[in-house]
Records
---
Amino acid sequence: MKKGNFKRKFNYWLDEAMSKGTISIVRLLSFVVISAVIFVSLLIVLFKLRDSFFSAFWDSLATVINAWMPSSDEGDFGYVILNTMMAVIGLFFTSILIGVVGSGIEEKINQLRRGNSFVLENGHTVILGYNIGEHGLLNQLILAAGRQKRCIVILSDIEKPDLEQDIKNSIDIPDNVKVICRNGDITNVNDLRICSIDTAKLLIINALDDNRRIKTILAVSALKKEYPECNARIVACVTDEKHLLPRRKIKDKNMIIQKTDEIMAKVIAHTATEPGLSIVFKELMNFEENELYFETDYRLIGKSVLEISGILDHAALAGIKRGERIVLNPKRDEVIDISDEVILFEQEAGAYEVIEADEKNVEDRKIGEIEREDKGKVVVFGYNILLDTILSELHNDVRELCIISNDENVGSLIEEYSKLNITQMKTYRERQLEKIAEEADHIVVLTDREKDKEDADVDTILLLLKLMDIRERKDLSFNMVVELNKESSHNVSPRDDCIDYIVGSNIASLILAQMAENPYLENVFSELLTNRGNELYSKPIRNFNLKDEHDYSCAGLKEIILSYGYTLLGYTHEGKILMNPDLKQRVKFDMNDRLIVLGRD
């Protein structure tokens, strides 16, 4: 045997024992003390310092526990010496035990503060990933809950106290919603287990980047294989299309995965040239105002879409769910079947009323041709990956489009979308900015994704302030659609009726929340956010041959718009937007007013 081999083995064994935690240390310490007590008791009996082993054992054990020095009159000199040794051992034992137990309790308290205990809930929602300062998703889920009881579990690598404090400072959580925070790695299967994935109803992947999103999806999928009875739906967003899983795999795993960049680009394209349309998109995507609900009502069965338009108050019939098929903007003679669900644009579920039809509200008029609207000139500041999709979705009636960027990819886009009459300005001087603004009808500002997100947002806001100053000084009327990276940047950005902000983190949160509440909305948004099929439009009243200063009832307006093949959702009047007006409400338009409609162009 090599020299020192026993010492190394003992040290290795001791390290192993100590590393097993508080219980192991207490067990080892107790074994050492009891062994010492037995040894000393045997010596006492051997030297006949006490008559029985039990008596010697009890005295030695009591001395250890109390760490009490024996006096000279309690026995012979040998007995006093041996028990004095036990008192010293007891002093060390007590000191070490207090330290070990104290450290163990402190460690357990820290674990509880970090949130490592199992969640004992059923039918709950699990959010995997959370970003300090980004509260859109949680806020939307709370709004969607309404008055229903709901439990939301958040798993994040943020320390539990910090996460709870951020939520407490930013969101008012009602009594019917319970929010539970846990600390862990969302890509780690063992950490996912503490969220009771097997009993959850919904899993929302809210990671910072695509790589972590995909790893989290794979970790969740692996965990779900362990629980065949688990049917929790997985909802996630990815930025890059290459990170989309195959469609068959998504269906097999009960997943809904949306492309954030594509949705952002389509929202920008559809709102850039349609004044007021951004408000409708925001209402559709959040739970604060009007949104889409799937309803079943026996009172509507057997009635046509035209009949329903005259009796459905505080809501608009946007579509029909027929089995697995979604029909948006149904034709006026379409009849509701007993197995159909109606898709209503309303303030909250069940907010509509079915009233008696009023013949006085019917408009008898001749239907003319819809007038095409010249969308004017669009100026795009900057280039990023969104631009390709924006150009593909941009309205064909745009007269001219100018892209201000020196990126080499702009040239290939100009060739690809030659029908849009695109020009490129590689750079500009500050004094040229006024001329650019004067010639623009619509302005789009894209963020520079090559820069740090904070720095890019600051640059965007500075450009925005300059454009706002020019607009005010020159009394111009262009509207602006501005892309921002972070919600915190949006919170400090200037507010103006002419500006629509598209925030990446907000769009992802809104879409995740909507898909979480109703997976069928995936097909609805897919159609609305494309230039193929039914879309949302903000059209001037002259397109429908409406006369200014004429007194129209809203029921009559719905009938007129249906005659043109569109569904009326609301209108703008005197600079204000009114959605879902009362059927009996009457309005006198002026020529600057517009109608918010759903239909095919």
---
Amino acid sequence: MIGRVRRRRPDDRGAILVLFAVATPILIGMLAIALDLGYGFVQTRRAQNAADFAAFAAAQQLNGSTVCNGSIAPPNMQQLVDIVQHVVSDNAPSIGSAWTGQFIDDTGKPIKGSNFSSTSSNAAASPPPGACGVLVDATPVWSPFFAQILGINTLTGNGSSDVSNSIQGQPIGIVALNKVGPHETLGGGSGQFVVSGDMVLNTDVENQPWSVSSQGWEFDDAVDAKTGSNLYVYGTIHANDGTYHNEPLWPLDQCFASQGPVGKGNGGGPAYGTAPTPTNALSCTDNGAKVTVGYNAIDPTVAAINDPLQSAGSPPSPFNTSIACPGMNAVTYSSSPSSGTLLPGEYTNPVKITGSARFDDCSGYAGEGAYPGIYRFDKGVWIDPQTSGETVTGSNVLLATNTPYPLAGNVPGSNGSGGFVASGSGNGAPCLPKGTMTSAPSGDGSPEPEVDGSAGSACSGTSSTTYGVIAYGDSSFKQVTGLYGTGDNLSLIVGGVSGTTVALSGPTTGGYAGSDGAAGVALYQNATTQANYGFDAESGDAASINITGLVYNASLTNYGGSAPLDYWDGTGGGIPFYAGGTLQAGYGAGWSDGPAPSGGTVTINGTCIVDDFNTDGGTTITIVGHPFSLPGAGRLSFIG
């Protein structure tokens, strides 16, 4: 067999060289793409990690802050910028300062106009209200390895991430639901009144005796301070968006009108405990006395709201549902214990506590673990420890009240052989000793008679020692003939002598509990029965009072034109009185020949939902607001 040998033609070698010459750039290009894309993937992954970690770190700083879902001070912009830059640099040095941030709300939606970057270093600035998270967008830049051969000298990537915290509402200290009256929130005493959190004022002050026009606004006196007091709101005052004389309403007293609408906006400013006063601290002279109202901002664009606890999704009234511990029948008590351990149930007679006592939950009653104790006081309860060192406590409990406590000077009645017997309800105005005069700062410059001592103004029958205050008309500033105070109309009275302590905390389980085990509804007034609350609001009170949870009294049943828009304390001012819906903290503002002002402290850790909140006397009042969702937000949350 003869084999064949194939000889290479002379031009084959040249063809291979040509093919190699043509393929080499392609191979180099493919290698460059493979290497540079791989490195680019690493850089982009690092950028994404940097954005993830930076957004998480920034969101952690906002969690629990007053701008999101808590009551602590938020970080300033310099702190946030430093945190984001530090995390970015640690995870992706190639980014440098090429990143931007934007605040987002609890749903992940960007907040308009809230962009920031590495140059946003204003240490005085704060995140906007509702800022519960941050969106970080990072852009790494690097030089390629082989792509430069093709004229590509730099490559860029992108990493973007957003992290947000959940929110149950803004921290709110007071929701004042009175739709028509002025002085919805009043600092009327000589003690300090602090609200940590927002305030919501419902009124459009239909009866406008106090309104003054200034710089295109109507100052309607929805929030005020008198008698040398200081009212500080470390938050935003949300006021009704109504108008009067075709001008928008501004909620401050006419005393501040010359200073104009200061602090218009929503949010920002220091948190309570971080500064001696809020951002805007306005002072004026009220008939010779300097008064101060401070706040971080005023938002006058809020429409009137309805009662949150009468809205869909709210828990039932304790007067319309079973209050028994699980597995037990409802227990009714006709006795009136003065000390010791009280057990859950319905108390059909007035209860006055004068010594150390404890309100128990179901765990000490029916062996039901931590199930809350619900107490229903059909004729009021007066907590009044009388010896220094005594304490009245209650944890995981709800105290519900109905008709006012029958105390002489609280409601009308008579003194008989069996003691004082109530004959009706009070109208909210106090009863004072004969001869009491108004204080000059609130009496239009000169003291005036507070009570006339006549039989027609007696508060407690033929043997009365107290008399109803003289009422002055809201629009005329003249005495309303025949109308006197008939008593504070208090269904819940909490006080005591100096050195005593009252500490009550709302349910942490069950239908009245707050979120995540927090205290929920602590105090509940039957909304269908007009009555008020009084904290250190009796003569001689100086107790230390601490309420943790939601405080509810919106029992002013008439919001219309016939609502009792009358005033006591003279023709020039004073504190409005209502038969229901008022939380009165403190007693006595320095009346001439009258009772001594109260002392002590009142601290409420939670949201107060009332019609009006008044302070008086020398008591120090502090409201530490907690997140609360108002109607219209699609949810209702109780957090104490």
